[in-house]
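Page 37, continued from 36.
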């Protein structure tokens, strides 16, 4: 092998793609049919197959909305613990958190299982659908500081606010987010700010005036911690359909077809053309692949990921025989329709 899993420290498990928020900045495009949750056996087998080779100590649960399949998430935590993993975090939109007593019970159980932190989204995107009261219900369960100082933690809940572009960028999304953040401050809680990356649906709302970057020559792992690092990958995502992704929509393989060990053996020795191109030239490599096949790029983009997604969207729509199997899962790409408007992909 030309690489090793010794630096593989974290896995993101997408418990389900089921979600009723449909946020404008989401990594994922909603698809109807299959909202089955992830099979905990899949996680078990994946970890077993690379046992002794990796150093995974952290698992983050996301989705979709992971609390929609709470029992499956609990089972996944138990399976991961069997493999020696002891740090768990969860992202939630809080849609399920309208009853404080239910929230307390669910989070108490997670705390007992060893979950360390739960981040709840609080911004203009999510609060279009989710009452702010739900967010506060989750924040109120935070372990009191006194318990922490006595060594009984570590469990924390926190709110995370996503801004478009950058935090001080003045636009309607960010002004509304700032109002939401102020309300949470007024209730006595802190909010962590973050920005929407140019992934998935966020590409389509990225304001023109922020699309000014012409250089775009950084490789994924040089600006996006650990992503798709060639010889010593640090993190991967696993989704309910079995796809192992190095980044959103960049598939390394599928656990329903081959083992995690086989997926990484190929990643190191014979990566698919999308990954090879990203390793060698980053987003500019994908631009090259797409331009050779008719893609007409803009003169500037928000960042490398913005260009990467634009090139990948093109390749998936126009060259699916050549690249479709490497550009998965579907939910990472805009739906493709035929001339009648019927969705074909
Ligand atoms: S350039 Fe592409 S593959 Fe790399 S981090 Fe950005 S979106 Fe992911």
């Amino acid at each position: 092998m030309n690489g090793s899993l010794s630096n593989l420290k974290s896995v993101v498990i997408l418990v389900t793609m089921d979600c009723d928020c449909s946020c404008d900045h989401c990594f994922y495009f909603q698809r109807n049919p299959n909202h089955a949750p992830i099979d905990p056996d899949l996680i078990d087998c994946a970890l077993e197959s690379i046992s002794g080779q990796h150093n995974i100590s952290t698992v983050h649960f996301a989705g979709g909305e992971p609390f929609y399949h709470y029992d499956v998430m609990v089972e996944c935590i138990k399976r991961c613990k069997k493999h020696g993993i002891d740090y768990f975090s969860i992202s939630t939109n809080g849609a399920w958190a309208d009853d404080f007593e239910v929230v307390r019970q669910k989070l108490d159980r997670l705390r007992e299982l060893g979950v360390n932190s739960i981040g709840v989204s609080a911004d203009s995107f999510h609060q279009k659908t989710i009452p702010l009261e739900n967010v506060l219900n989750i924040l109120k369960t935070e372990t009191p500081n006194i318990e922490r100082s006595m060594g009984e933690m570590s469990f924390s809940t926190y709110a995370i606010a996503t801004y478009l572009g950058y935090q001080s960028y003045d636009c309607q999304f960010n002004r509304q987010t700032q109002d939401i953040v102020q309300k949470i401050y007024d209730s006595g809680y802190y909010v962590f700010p973050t920005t929407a990356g140019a992934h998935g649906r966020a590409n389509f709302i990225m304001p023109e005036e922020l699309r000014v970057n012409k250089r775009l020559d950084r490789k994924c792992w040089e600006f996006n911690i650990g992503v798709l690092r060639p010889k010593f990958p640090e993190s991967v995502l696993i989704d309910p359909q079995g796809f192992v992704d190095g980044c959103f929509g960049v598939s390394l393989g599928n656990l329903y077809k081959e083992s995690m060990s086989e997926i990484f053996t190929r990643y190191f020795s014979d990566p698919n053309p999308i990954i090879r191109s990203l390793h060698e030239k980053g987003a500019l490599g994908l631009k090259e692949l797409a331009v050779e096949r008719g893609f007409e790029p803009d003169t500037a983009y928000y960042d490398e990921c913005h260009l990467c997604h634009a090139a990948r969207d093109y390749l998936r729509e126009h060259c699916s025989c050549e690249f479709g199997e490497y550009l998965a899962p579907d939910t990472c790409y805009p739906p493709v329709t035929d001339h009648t408007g019927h969705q074909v992909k």
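The CA atoms of residues 219 and 281 lie 7 Å apart. Flag for discussion at group meeting. The longest strand covers residues 156-164.
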